[in-house]
Automatic annotation (TrEMBL):
Stated name of the protein: Thioesterase domain-containing protein
Organism the protein comes from: Symbiobacterium thermophilum
Secretion signal span: none
MF (Gene Ontology): 1,4-dihydroxy-2-naphthoyl-CoA thioesterase activity
CDD domains linked to this entry: PaaI_thioesterase
GO CC annotations on file: cytosol
């Protein structure tokens, strides 16, 4: 498992990873909240990005590397409580890879989806 220091900043933990899939967990804390007491959008994006990156890395050949080249997120409810992000590799090609993800906020019970191409 590759160590990603920024993932540690938001307190995200890898629950499982392998075979093009990953699950990450993050508990909302004072360090991830905005001034309204909700999880900051940057922390949510980081959780999604880390989940997709972890899933894609588990599908790549040893020595291959990835970097986010595009990412979009739409939120339909504020992030609070415990968050769980599940991601999977949708396509791994010669120069790009695409990952999809779902995130559940345990107390609010909502889902969102996103795609991220990566090279």
């Amino acid at each position: 498992m590759v160590r990603i220091p920024f993932r540690e900043v938001i307190g995200a933990q890898v629950v499982e990873a392998g075979h093009g899939r990953s699950t990450l967990r993050m508990q909302a804390s004072e360090h991830t909240q905005n001034n309204m007491g909700m999880v900051h959008g940057g922390a949510l994006c980081t959780l999604a990005d880390a989940a997709i990156g972890t899933a894609l890395r588990s599908a790549l050949k040893p020595g291959d590397a990835i970097a986010t080249i595009e990412m979009k997120m739409n939120r339909i409810a504020p992030g609070r409580g415990g968050l769980l992000a599940r991601a999977r590799a949708l396509h791994v090609g010669g120069t790009t890879a695409v990952g999809g993800w779902r995130s559940r906020i345990s107390r609010a019970g909502w889902w969102r989806r996103g795609l991220r191409p990566s090279t």
